[in-house]
Task: structure prediction
Amino acid sequence: MIFSVESPDWQILRKSGDAMQMELLKNELLNNEINCFLVNKKDSVYPIFGAYLLYVEKENADVAKAIIENFLNNDDSKAS
Result:
């Protein structure tokens, strides 16, 4: 499947300025066999502007949201 940010088959699942967290989320989705892509929309000159966008296939969006929510909740409980 070819990825394009303008494709109707893909949707933004999450947007964040935290590159490390977005990579962790992407890896968690890939480990659960959910196709996803991370797009860097950060400004290279002024990195405080822009964000990282995590795209998933629309058909897997609900499952991906649940996986991410579970991952983030487990991560928060470990930090406490």
